[in-house]
Fold this sequence. Notes:
This protein is α/β, with parallel strands linked by helices. It has 6 helices and 5 strands, in the order E-H-E-H-E-H-H-E-H-E-H.
Amino acid sequence: MKNIVLFASGSGTNVENIIEYFKDIDVKNNFFVFTNNPDAFVIERAKKLDVPYFVFNKQGLKDGAVLHKIMEINPKAKVVMASSVGTSDHLKQALENGAYDFIQKPISLEAITNLIEKVLEEESANV
């Protein structure tokens, strides 16, 4: 069983889509939601889906502390960062801090699906 950490700061629509995708393909995973917004609706979605959530401050995301904490918990974690304000500097910093990939918002279901399939293919190739 894999641990999947999802970062979200708004409504959580993408979080719910990702979790539902895994349910639909019958792959068992543990999900965790991290958010920098204590009032974000994603927290309500996480509660509804019975998914643990964690609130952090923006500085922890910018300086890599959140990413480092995830990697400390699970060094094999595949962390994908998503942002609506992504720049090449954000991408470079996320990857240098250990992120697996970075997605620019708005995120399409196709982009999420392609990324998840890429991770699953790499994992099956490493078995």
